[in-house]
Design brief:
about 0% strand
């Protein structure tokens, strides 16, 4: 029996999940650093171009401009470090920018009339202080693990529900179950030692590990010494890093695996050439100095996260719609 293109992609994704997991188990920090520097920039550039052609899945043509502005404000402190100037933007303000971005994405997807949009943004501004209670979700996990793991899984689930594809369900459940393999089945294999390069290069990403270990483990994170020990050398730290490396690597690979379906590569040759040139420049920046590469690409990285939010909202809406329609059909049949 010949497989359809969709089945080939879904089973290909199963293979990519297995491969990502296997490498993450043995080389977690190195895999993450490779994927983030090599696959990440190409993903940002190609997805932003694809989203632009789709009008960012918003109601109005220029809705995306607010998300671009918020991305710039959020990235300014990192840009300031690169260019040696202080911005005065606090972590609390960055969290509030993230809150506005999420509210804006919801408004841009569901609301078209200007008066209702004004009311929505007014309510967002009035409840800004309330957003500080969700710092971990909005500022730490939304642009990182929620974006690369949960939203990717939701895309896969929505696709499986929409196409009623058996292979789609298999790839979705494989993605959900393999982190369990990482955390529990291979939890005994923690003799891995991070390389010197990996130890120095990963410093820019420690916040993800720090907050995860602080809130979801019993590791002491009270001093710099215990933080370093917990992130890089503890059993819990290595297991966590395996999951992070897997989530990021598969997130990027999943995007490229769908090329023939969403056809993000079907763009004018000039744009494709610009993407390739920018990608090569970004790789060169990471090769020169990983921290410098991170700082140079931080705005682009955050930009693709915020510009994707409307699509994330649509995927969640689509899942509920598919599940509701399925339930309704069952009731009507009975």
């Amino acid at each position: 029996m010949q497989l359809s293109l969709l089945d080939k992609i879904n089973y290909g994704n199963v293979a990519l999940i297995v491969i990502s997991t296997a490498i993450a188990i043995f080389f977690p920090f190195e895999l993450f650093l490779f994927s983030y520097a090599i696959l990440g920039p190409l993903h940002y550039l190609t997805e932003i171009g694809w989203l632009h052609d789709k009008q960012y899945y918003t109601k109005k043509k220029y809705d995306f401009s607010l998300l671009v502005a918020l991305s710039l404000l959020i990235a300014l402190p990192v840009i300031g470090l690169l260019l040696h100037f202080k911005t005065g933007i606090s972590s609390e303000q960055i969290n509030q920018f993230m809150y506005i971005a999420v509210v804006a994405a919801i408004i841009f997807v569901f609301v078209e009339k200007p008066i209702y949009r004004i009311v929505g943004f007014a309510l967002a501004i009035l409840t800004l202080k309330f957003s500080n209670n969700f710092y971990l979700v909005l500022s730490v996990f939304l642009p990182t693990l929620i974006h690369v793991f949960i939203f990717t899984a939701l895309f896969m689930l929505y696709g499986a529900l929409k196409t009623k594809s058996k292979s789609g369900y298999i790839s979705f459940w494989t993605m959900i179950l393999f982190p369990v393999i990482i955390i529990y089945i291979f939890s005994g294999y923690t003799s891995y030692t991070i390389s010197d390069y990996g130890f120095n290069a990963y410093k820019s990403f420690e916040a993800i590990n720090f907050f995860s270990l602080k809130n979801f483990s019993t590791i002491n994170t009270s001093t710099n010494e215990t933080i370093t020990q917990g992130i890089y050398f503890s059993k819990a730290g290595i297991i966590l890093m395996r999951f992070i490396a897997f989530a990021y690597t598969y997130h990027y690979l999943n995007w490229f695996s769908k090329t023939e379906v969403i056809k993000w590569h079907k763009v004018p040759k000039r744009r494709l050439l610009i993407i390739v040139i920018l990608w090569l420049i970004s790789i060169a920046a990471y090769a020169f100095d990983y921290k410098t590469g991170f700082q140079c690409l931080f705005f682009l990285s955050f930009l693709h996260v915020l510009l994707e939010l409307p699509l994330n909202i649509i995927s969640i809406k689509g899942i509920f719609s598919e599940l509701f329609n399925s339930s309704t059909k069952k009731v009507l049949i009975k």
